[in-house]
Amino acid sequence: MDNHHVNIDLTKIDSQSGLPKPLEGIRVLELGQLIAGPFCATMLGYFGAEVIKVEPPESGDPIRVWRHIDSDGVSPWYRSIARNKKSCEINLRTEEGRSLVKDLANKSDVLIENFRPKTMEKWGLGPDVLYETNPGLIYTRVSGYGQTGPYAMKPGYASVCEAMAGFRYINGYPNSAPVRPNISLGDSVAGLTAAFGTVLSLLAKQRLSHTQRKSGQTIDVSIVESMFNMTEGILPEYDRFKTIRQPSGTTVTGIVPTNAYPCKDGKYVIIGANGDSIYKRLMIAANREDLTTEEYATNKERVKRQEEIDDAISAWTKELTSREVLESLEKANVPSGSIYNIEDFVNDPHVVERNICEDVKVGGQDGWNVKIPAIPPKLEETPGESNWAGPDLGQHNREIFMDMLGLSSQQVKQYQKAGIVGKTL
Question: What transmembrane ranges does the database entry give (predicted)?
C-alpha cells in the first residue's frame, strides 16, 4: 500500500499562487459516470485534488457524447464536468481490470462511485474489501435512494428521485402536470452533498488517525435525500398543521409579494419585496401608496390580499419596459432583476468582472476555447481554478498505468490486447 497521500502535510505543498489549494495532495479515484458522482469529483478537483477518472475502454463516460457535440466528437459539457481530471481506460468487467482499480484505490485518499448499490461489492471493490489494505480510504457513494432500505436497488435517475423527494410536486401550476427545470438538478445537488461529505470525512480523518479505529469511512448519499433536504419548511409545516404545500406557479406560498411581472416590451421581471419595509418602497415606486396602510403592513396580512397586490404590481409593470421597471426599483432599493438566458448572463458586466465564466483550451495548437462555469465559493487566499478541460479518452493512460502503477510497456500491451485497458498510450 502507498501511504504517500494518507498523512501528507498540506502546508508544505506549493501551488501557482504560492499557497496550496485546499485539497492539494489529496488523490481522488472517480469510478462514476454521467453527473452525480463526477460532479462531486469536479468540485474536489477544482480546489486542488488530483482526480483520476476511470472510464470504459473505447466508449468512455456516456456524457462525452450527450447533447451538442463539438467538431472533435466530444460534448462541451463533458469538457466542463471533467475539468482538471486525468482519464484512464479500464474495463471493470474483467478481473484484471478490477485488480488495477484496487491498486489505484490503495494509492488514493478518496474513492467516488455512483453505480447501483451492491455493484462494487459484486466486483470485489466494496468498502470492506478496500479497507483491508487502505483503512484510511474515504469511500463516497452516490445513488438514487441510498445504500440501504427497500428502494436501494431501484434504478434512480435525478428525474424520478426529484419526484419522490416532493420537489416535482410543488413545481408548476395548480391542476396542471408537474414541471421540471431543464437541468438534472437532483444530480448536481447530490454531487454537492457528496463533496461536502467527502471534505467532512477528510477533516474527521485527521482526528481518527490518532485512534485505534480506521481513519476512513463510507459516505452514503442519495439523490432523494439530497433533494428533500432542500424543501425548507415543507416537512415541519405538514407535521404540525397537516398542510401539504401545493404548486404555486411563479409565486412562493405564504410570501407576498414575490413573482414574475409582465412588462410592456414582452419581458418579465422578478420582484421580491416580501420584507415589510421593502414592500412599502415598492408600492410607493408603483404609485400605489394606498396599498401601504396597516392592512398591508405585514406579510401575514399581505398573504390574505395576494391577488390584489399582484394585480396592482402587474398593472404598473405593464405600462413600462422591463428596463424602466428595473431602473425605478433600483432607485427605490427593491430587490428585482431580469430573467436571463445564457447569452444575457455571459455578457453581463457583473459576470464578466467577477470571472464567473472561465475559458479552457481544447485541443492542441489549432484548438479552441470553451467557456465553463467557475466553481464557487471564491476563496481569498487559496482559490480554485480550471487548469485544463476534460481530457480526451485515455489521455493519461501512460501516466497512470506505467508511472503510478509501475506497469511495464509489455504488461500494458498485453492488457490492451486482452481488452482490459484502452489502446491509447
Answer: none
